[in-house]
Specification:
Elements (H helix, E strand, L loop, with lengths): L1 H35 L1 H15 L14 H30 L5 H38 L12 H18 L2 H10 L7 H4 L1 H15 L4 H34 L1
Helix pairs in contact: 1-3, 2-4, 3-4, 3-5, 4-5, 4-9, 6-9, 8-9
Length: 247
Amino acid sequence: MIIPALEQLRPHYEELQKRLLYSVIAVVVCSGLAWLFIDQLAAFCIQPLFAATPQHLYKLVYTKLTDAFLSYIKLALLAGITVSFPFLLYQVWLFAVPGLLPQERRIVRRIILWSVGLFIAGAVFAFFIVLPRTLAFFMSYASDNLQPMPKLSLYLTFVARMVLAFAAAFEIPFLMVMASAARLVQREHFKTKRKFFYIAIAGLAFLLAAGDLTATVLLAFPLFGLYEAGIVAVRVFVQFTEQGAAD
């Protein structure tokens, strides 16, 4: 009984292996390309810190011989994941599409396109709007008697976490629709539990903004809007599914 069941799962396992392999190759290739421009990429990431405190900070430091090298590798890997993200979602789509109905495929294709756009929008929003204000807040404590000396590795980690966290947070509508499509929640769940999700979003925004109230507000309100957009997207997806089942 167990062996026939395993044989039925073999095609899915092999397909998953193939999609994972393609995804890993895409990340490695994109990270390798990012490494070719790592100096320019690092300067681009460091520039907001210098702009936040031009009168107090002119350079970063590293205290271990391997710090700069490892930091550049992490930065190249992050850039590779970010650039290859649309391709990674496409691999998820190819793995899931055989089990979807035609009308579900159309709506999920659009949702994935929107997901890519939201991911990019979240990363851009974090880097160009939230990050400068957050850095200005933290570096405002610098003075003639208090000299900041940020480490390269810790700063790049801080930037990477913020950008990825905001990009992931902007995926709220996509995750809501996927949860509904997988039958993990009922279609009215997000609407009836709205106030609890709002509280959770406000807490998440506060944590992502590292306690800065300005950055918290800048993140929380877009996330509230995305949550409401997710409710609409779930309703549209359910309607398409029900119409397809009726047909």
